[in-house]
Amino acid sequence: FDNSDFLDVCEYLLSRGEIITKSYEYFWSPTKKNKFHRSIIIPFYYKDMIVGYSSRRIDKTEKVRYHAHTPLNYLFMNHNLMKKNRKYVILVEGVFDSIAIDGVGVLGGSINKTQIQWINNSFKEVIVVPDREKSGSFLVDIALENNWWVSIPSYTDTPLDESKSNYSWVWHKDVKDCADAVKRYGRLFTISSILENKIKDKLKIEIH
């Protein structure tokens, strides 16, 4: 397929790591409206039907990285709330973080009462993993209000495989979110580190 925009989008997707690349079905469009031709399109599903989308622009010069059509009260990858064999729901902000850990994304800087009720009605243990790079504190505040777990893996400057004595469930300083963690450590380690670091103690959470 000889289209430079399409190939650039594929290259960007591959740069996000194997798990993100293979764990979801993405779309692309050659139309220049909303810069779709330079974007990867992530469809939003509800009960196997497409109900919206988010398009991630691949060019670093773009000040606005995402263009989305999001239904009211929508939660990304909401099917994970309905899986009977799930004990945990890992709640994150963005689409790629959700895909990376097979979690649920709130898609933005807020979450309303209807979405909170939807999450609580899953009757699963909810673990919030705030974004390190942005102001993820709003999710932490919601977690405290709803008695949800919060997981903030500690930072390290030392490679995890340098010595057995140094091994622990921590992330490197340049790992800013779940997507980065999965790309570097893999999904199993990332999810395990989230579970190992989950806390409910308000003082410890506020210190973090």
How would you sum up the global shape? Answer: globular
Q: Into which percentage range does the β-strand content fall?
A: 15-25%
What does the largest sheet look like? 5 strands, mixed
Helix share bin: 25-40%
Task: Please provide the ordered H/E string of secondary-structure elements.
Answer: HHEEEEHEHEHEEEHHEH
What's the oligomerization state?
A: single chain
Q: What is the number of strand segments?
A: 10
Summary keywords:
10 strands, five-stranded mixed sheet, single chain, 208 residues, alpha/beta, 8 helices
Descriptive overview:
Helix 6 crosses helix 7. The strands form three sheets. Strands 5-4-6-7-10 form a five-stranded mixed beta sheet, with helices on both faces. It contains eight helices and ten strands. It has helices spanning 4-15, 18-22, 95-101, 113-120, 137-146, 178-185, 187-196, 202-207; strands at residues 39-46, 49-57, 66-69, 88-92, 104-105, 125-128, 149-151, 155-156, 171-172, 198-199. The protein is α/β, with parallel strands linked by helices and 208 residues long. Helix 3 (95-101) links the parallel strand 4 and strand 5 (104-105). The radius of gyration is 18 Å and the shape is globular.
What topology does this entry show?
Blueprint: H1 4-15, H2 18-22, E1 39-46, E2 49-57, E3 66-69, E4 88-92, H3 95-101, E5 104-105, H4 113-120, E6 125-128, H5 137-146, E7 149-151, E8 155-156, E9 171-172, H6 178-185, H7 187-196, E10 198-199, H8 202-207
Parallel strand pairs: 4-5, 4-6, 6-7, 8-9
Antiparallel strand pairs: 1-2, 2-3, 7-10
Helix pairs in contact: 3-6, 6-7
